[in-house]
Amino acid sequence: MSRILYFTRDYTTHDHRFLSAMAKAGDQVYYLRLERQGQVFEDRPLPPEVEQVQWAGGRAAAHWQDGPRLLASLKQVIREVKPDLVQAGPLQRSAFLAALSGFQPLVSMSWGYDLIQDAELNALWRWATRYTLRHSAAMVGDCETIRQLAISYGMPDKRIVTFPWGVDLQHFSPAATGSSTHRVGLAGADAPFTLLSTRGWEPVYGVEVIARGFVAAAQVNPSLHLIILGNGSQAGVVHQIFERGGVLERVHLAGQVSQADLPRYYRSCDLYVSASHSDGTSISLLEALACGCPVLVSDIPGNREWITPGEQGWLFPSGDAEAFAQTILQAASDRRRLQDLGQAARRLAEQRADWDKNFPQLSRAYELALQTTRDKGLP
Predict the structure, then answer these.
(1) Taking the domain 3-165+359-375, which CATH number applies?
(2) pTM > 0.70
(3) What is the pLDDT of residues 8-65, one digit of tens each?
(4) In whole angstroms, what is the distance from residue 63 CA to residue 127 CA?
(5) Among 2, 71, 84, 171, which lies 20 to 30 A Cα-Cα from 296?
(6) Cα(107)–Cα(6) distance, integer angstroms
(7) Residue 188: is it exposed, middle or buried by C-beta count within 10 angstroms (0-12/13-18/19+)?
(8) Architecture category of domain 193-353 in CATH
(9) HSE (CB half, 13 Å, CA atoms) of 5?
(10) Comparing C-alpha atoms, which of 68, 66, 133, 122 is closest to residue 96?
(11) pLDDT at 182
């Protein structure tokens, strides 16, 4: 049994899954939270086997000026916990602090946005990225796009472990054969063609593109409806687009939805949509595939690693609301294809997105980190 200090930015659904699986694997897991951002990402408590560590952070948003205080506290935590290994991410936040502490072995875990977006913000963030990777015994990423970016910032290819995090294929699954699914929050005898968006209402996720594209398509096809989950800083813009487009009565704003309820939404829609401008392997995309839902997503590298146009759904040029609208209309005009696309989506999830099969790859990163540390003669 290993003592693992799991150091993350906040507490999200992904953290809960990793922590639960790590504890079930028999390790002694300590959870350290860098900051509390205000938004509730996960409402389930920590797994009972996981011990939360109290320290100087984790109570509010963390800023660069907090670094010296947090670093001193982290060093104290490491002295008290005496972990065999630290797993930390994102790269320029939790993993950067862990690298500054000098502890080894360090397994850095990329959260996608840290390499795709944050590393490009300015020279300071680029330096923090390189420093973290240079002081990481191993790195975990969720797709080839992340792997290549890590290499470009100096991480040796042989010390990178790549695997998609995956989803619970029993929880996220198609509706049972013969069951009657219903449209969540929508009704009508005209058999609406329902789109589902689950991403946050932030600029990076292209929610404004979804709103503009839906308005354009809905003005052509009166059977279109949209279920849109979540909320965020773009709420005012999105509401204004729907109101000016005259489609508010065809949009169901469902707000935040629990993990327990999410499959019901995927099963209730005809097409999952995402206009994200930046992604590694999108967990929302994998959830949709696992539920047998055809998809329409932006043509970015992370999505291209999963979606073959015409097989599981469609791709459209990132940021192009007109192309998004035209592809919606195309999908709605040929509903007979949707069943085949949905079956192909589920097959792909079973082949590549099974959490139970993918999670054990994390142990490979641990072994690699421990061996790297031994090879360097570090204590």
Answers:
(1) 3.40.50.2000
(2) yes
(3) 999 988 899 999 999 888 889 999 999 987 665 677 899 999 999 999 999 998 998 9
(4) 17
(5) 171
(6) 10
(7) exposed
(8) 3-Layer(aba) Sandwich (3.40)
(9) 27
(10) 133
(11) 43
> What stretches in the chain show pLDDT beneath 50?
178-180, 182-189, 379
Lookup: tokens for 170: 């029993």
Per-residue tokens: 370: 């421990």
Position 188 scores a pLDDT of 39
Distance CA 83, CA 278 (A): 34
Tokens representing residue 246 in the block:
């005259």
Q: Is the peptide bond before 164 cis (omega within 30 degrees of 0)?
A: no
Tokens 């073959």 found at: 308
- Taking the domains of the chain in order of start, what are their residue ranges? 3-165+359-375, 193-353
Tally of CB atoms within 10 A around 210: 27
For residue 48 the two structure tokens come to 């009972």
Residue 38's pLDDT is what? Answer: 67
Token digits of residue 132: 């973290």
The pLDDT value recorded for residue 13 is 86
Q: Do domains 3-165+359-375 and 193-353 have the same CATH topology?
A: yes
pLDDT of residue 372: 80
Q: How far apart are CA 105 and CA 328, in angstroms?
A: 48
Are 326 and 346 spatial neighbours (Cβ–Cβ below 8 Å)? no
CA–CA separation, 195 vs 215, rounded Å? 12
Cα–Cα distance for residue pair 110/15, rounded to 1 Å: 13
